[in-house]
Design goal:
5-stranded parallel β-sheet; alpha/beta; about 10% strand; globular; Rossmann fold
């Protein structure tokens, strides 16, 4: 009988989470399916944090357990990614140090076959632009959880346009504070608050 992986994460039940992942991988369940369940758990935790049922300590505990789960899953995802289907530069803009959502996206995108260049968090405008210039990715991804990050993202897009780097580049923005309005403000090509939807959008943006 399968355990509720998402609920086990919400309950911070390390033994169930790690044990269930190991067991299901042995049963040949796809790693991406397990990540989807873990993502559901993280979404529930985020909701509890927003309503005040969980505090920062719980948020950090869940992030730590999620990271331990991904240490098991990521090698399996890499094994399934035989060919590179596209290149993505991704980072959390200056003024924002949140990385849980970004890290989930990075892991799943690698498993889907993308070559990922993760710039980390609190990334200055110039670093984004220089990375696009040097790497020449098909997609630039912004991950944002704080509204002050909107301006650095806008500055980055404006500078990319000024340098003639925007025409062949697709831009997607993700994170809990992003909306269609933010997408339009930035002039981005995609927006999402869901990792799996983000992967689908990235594939679509490059014609897959």
């Amino acid at each position: 009988m399968k355990e509720d992986l998402a609920q086990a994460l919400v309950d911070f039940n390390k033994n169930v989470v790690l044990g269930e992942i190991t067991r299901r991988l042995k049963d040949r369940q796809e790693p991406i399916e397990l990540i989807s369940e873990l993502q559901d758990g993280m979404a529930r935790i985020g909701q509890k944090f927003e309503t005040g049922d969980f505090f920062l300590s719980e948020l950090l505990m869940s992030a730590d357990l999620f990271s331990k789960a991904m240490q098991i899953l990521e090698p399996r995802l890499q094994d399934t990614a035989m060919d590179t289907i596209g290149t993505i530069v991704v980072g959390t803009p200056k003024g924002d140090i949140h990385d849980i959502g970004k890290n989930i996206f990075v892991t799943v995108a690698k498993g889907a076959g993308f070559e990922i260049h993760d710039l980390g968090v609190d990334v200055p405008v110039q670093d984004f632009v220089e990375s696009v210039e040097a790497i020449k990715p098909q997609i630039l991804g912004f991950s944002a959880l704080l509204t002050p990050s909107f301006e650095p993202m806008k500055e980055t897009v404006d500078l990319l346009i000024k340098k003639g780097l925007r025409e062949d580049l697709k831009i997607i923005v993700g994170g809990g504070v992003t909306t269609g309005t933010v997408k339009r403000y930035l002039g981005a090509d995609g927006q999402t608050t869901d990792v799996m939807d983000g992967i689908k959008q990235c594939k679509k943006l490059i014609g897959i």
